Amino acid sequence: MDRRIKIRHLQALTEIVRQGSLKRAAERLFLTQPAISRTLSELEEIVGAELLTRSRSGVALTPQGEFFHGFAQSSLSALEQGLAGIEEAGREGAMQLRVGALPSVAARLMPEVVTQLATMAPEIRLTIADGSHGHLTGLLRAGDLDLVIGRLGAPETMRGLSFTQLYLEEVAVVVRPGHPILSDPDLRRITDWPVIYPAPWAAIRPFVERLLIAEGVPVPGRRIETVSGAFGRAYLPGSDAVWFISAGVVAREVEQGQLVRLPIATHSTEGPVGLMARADQSETAARQLFIQAVGRAVSRLELT
GO molecular function terms here (predicted)? Predict the structure, then answer.
């Protein structure tokens, strides 16, 4: 952008168009009429085009002015929103945000999001709720949550909601270290042991079902149906259960060697994880800051 263009140039142009008169625009901006006329002339000289025509009936935008005026308005509006956001962030407790996080997001992404957000807006009051896809989207629709982060659900669960994809995540099959299946990690052997299996309302259940069908494995008869990360982490180390769970839920435990992921191809279980919001929801400074923090967290964790 030409550095000679200043905010006063954009303010002068937009106010002249808004008032339909140089005289009234000058009064609104506390300038003299010669001063605002000179400011407009400077802008026209910088852009190399006539932006306004003047007549006894008032002023009118030229085609070039019509084009430039829209961007001038957008620039000033964005600047005002940014300044308002900074002012809002500076008032302790002024910004609040209620976010729902599905289990894989709560365990893997949210700690980094909170870290990033703390550097951007330490005064923001963040409330985090976890739970199933149906539970959290229900709270979102009711207005009890501002955003939800998790897997894209079935079409009927997404009515009235927007979805912005962040990354893809697959299902992992994990066991305790030293589990007998590790000597021969064949998916068809899982029925020899209890299985922690996604509950019917879990977003990952259809993906797990398709994986088992593709591999010719029947739905395990001995199964505990849950996507509770807390239960799985507590139960698995002292049992021979096999756990189907979103990879993000157990990423840290697998990395630290507390759990072992079976070397089974699960690419077919990949599904999009993203931000969900009500389609009619208005933007706020808190939401914008949070979304920026999410983007930084995704990049730091190399999830894209």
Answer: DNA binding; DNA-binding transcription factor activity
H-run or E-run covering 289: helix 285-300
Residues 15 and 157 in one domain: no
* Residue range of the domain that includes 59: 7-90
CATH number of the domain within which 66 lies: 1.10.10.10
Measure the CA–CA gap between 249 and 254, rounded to whole angstroms. Answer: 10
Residues 149 and 282 in one domain: yes
Whether residue 239 contacts residue 176, with contact meaning beta carbons closer than 8 Å, is answered with: yes
Structure tokens at 287: 């939401």
Q: Six-digit token pair at 138?
A: 């229900």
CA distance 87 to 90: 5
Provide the number of structural domains found in the chain.
3
For residues 163 and 180, membership in a common domain is answered with no
How far, in Å, CA of 304 to CA of 302, rounded?
6
208 shares a domain with 277: no
Token pair 């923001």 is found at 124
Within-domain flag for 2: no
* Surface-to-core class of residue 29, CB atoms within 10 Å of its CB (0-12 exposed, 13-18 middle, 19+ buried): middle
Q: What is the CATH number of the domain that holds 100?
A: 3.40.190.10
Q: Give yes or no for a contact between 10 and 72, defined as CB atoms under 8 angstroms apart.
A: yes
At 143-158, the pLDDT tens digits run 899 999 999 988 888 8
Cα(101)–Cα(227) distance, integer angstroms: 13
Q: Kindly report the pTM of this predicted structure.
A: 0.65
Contact 69, 17 (CB under 8 A): yes
In degrees to the nearest 10, what's the CA dihedral of 144, 150, 156, 159? Answer: 50
What is the C-alpha to C-alpha distance for residues 216 and 186, in angstroms, rounded to an integer?
12
CA angle 139, 99, 288 (to 5 degrees): 125
pLDDT tens-digit series, residues 125-135: 899 998 888 88
Asked if residue 57 and residue 11 are part of one domain, the reply reads yes
Residues 66 and 206 in one domain: no
